Known about the structure:
The protein is α+β, with helices and mostly antiparallel strands. Helices cover 31% and strands 30% of the residues. The chain is built from 4 helices and 9 strands. Strands 2-3-4-5-1-6 form a 6-stranded antiparallel sheet, covered by helices on one side.
Amino acid sequence: MSVTETIDFVMAYTQAPIETDLYMEILQGIEMTGGNTKDYVLQLLAIFMKQAERVWNQYLVSKLESIGFTQSRIDECVFYRDDIIFIVYIDDGIFVGTSDDQLSHVIKELTDRGLQIENQGHPVDYIGVNIKRLPDDLYKFSQ
């Protein structure tokens, strides 16, 4: 029997380390409330930097490899470890495994490595594809 879990990496790009120092002056008339203004600006800039997607991907791959996942040579968005498959599209992921406990453990391993993850449970849709579980451990995918 297979089980699936979908996850979202919360504000993914801001989780990866910044490669270079960034500087920005707050424009006159813009008010910043709460927290450290510099931290807020750096997080905001990280989202829009051209290399942010590449940096995030490298960071995520390193975290997955650190807990024993291997990246597919055929599709760089697919990772596997033992009988678990993980598919990622930017900041959305889907795990396929043999038990809920197994997948919960893997998600905990990633959060223990410092990743902020929102577990969205069993998938109903994933990146625009509707997912319906059928009897006999089958799935129907539609758009």
